[in-house]
């Protein structure tokens, strides 16, 4: 977690790389700040810094940038101007904005899938066809906007495999194959709709909306009143999908990037 509210003063600190991707700022042998780098499934490296003092943040950022090759990324709450300014001092610029939506699980109501399509509920998908669909969807996204435009979880997985836990998915099936999927991540009390994707040759038929309505209904039946989702502002189709089920914008995040060596 990054600390956004810096205090005044410039403590004397020593920056130490304590692990391959971890840095500490030490003041009289006490930890005054921490920095960490993590690699997401799409290969991008994201940085985070936890520090109360502006100068400690800057020293940690300088040390991390000296040790790592770019491009490097970070995520900040757009409302946190001070933290954003800290990364901008380190040479980061805004790459994209993601809207954080909150949606009532009881607001969508039942939505019938198109003829010939059935919805397989959360946790009931067959693993083999699910992984096959995931590979198709990933290839289609890579060939168009690029997978780096999709929200990604920092989770371990075998190379080339983005299905970490099949139990997190509901799918749409047609003619004995899977044609669409939705992933629900329950990392907190507020479940997150992590990904909705439909094969390119099956889009614009209402499959995505039927998938979303099904998982929202399942969460509602489980006593969970709301869920969240991150939507790239450059994706009008996803924005329209969530707003069609009554989702509201709660906040926004900026992805910042620093190119270079």
From TrEMBL:
Native source species: Amycolatopsis mongoliensis
What Pfam families does the record point to?
Answer: Acetyltransf_10
- Enumerate the spans annotated as N-acetyltransferase domain: 117-261
- Keyword check for Protease: no
PROSITE patterns in UniProt: GNAT (PS51186)
What are the protein's GO molecular function terms? Answer: acyltransferase activity, transferring groups other than amino-acyl groups
What name has this protein been given in UniProt?
GNAT family N-acetyltransferase
Q: Which keywords does this chain's UniProt record carry?
A: Acyltransferase, Transferase
Q: Recorded E.C. number(s)?
A: 2.3.1.-
């Amino acid at each position: 977690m990054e600390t956004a509210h810096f205090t005044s003063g410039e403590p004397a600190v020593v920056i130490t790389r304590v692990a391959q991707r971890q840095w500490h700022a030490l003041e009289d042998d006490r930890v005054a700040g921490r920095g960490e780098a993590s690699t997401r499934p799409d290969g991008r490296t994201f940085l985070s810094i936890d520090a109360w003092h502006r100068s400690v943040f800057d020293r940690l950022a300088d040390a991390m940038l000296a040790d790592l090759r770019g491009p490097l990324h970070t995520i900040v709450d757009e409302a946190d101007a001070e933290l954003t300014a800290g990364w901008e001092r380190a040479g980061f610029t805004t790459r994209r904005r993601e809207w954080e939506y909150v949606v009532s699980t009881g607001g969508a109501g039942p939505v019938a899938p198109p003829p010939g399509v059935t919805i397989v509920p959360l946790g009931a998908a067959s693993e083999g066809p699910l992984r096959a669909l995931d590979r198709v969807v990933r290839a289609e996204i890579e060939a168009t906007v690029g997978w780096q435009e999709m929200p990604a979880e920092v989770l371990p997985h075998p190379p080339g495999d983005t299905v970490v836990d099949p139990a997190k998915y509901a799918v749409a099936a047609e003619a004995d194959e899977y044609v669409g999927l939705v992933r629900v991540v329950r990392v907190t009390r507020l479940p997150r709709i992590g990904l909705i994707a439909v094969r390119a040759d099956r889009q614009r038929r209402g499959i995505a909306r039927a998938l979303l309505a099904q998982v929202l209904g399942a969460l509602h039946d489980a006593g969970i009143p709301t869920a969240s989702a991150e939507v790239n502002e450059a994706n009008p189709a996803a924005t329209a999908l969530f707003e069609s089920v009554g989702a509201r914008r709660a906040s926004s995040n900026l992805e910042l990037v620093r190119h270079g060596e």
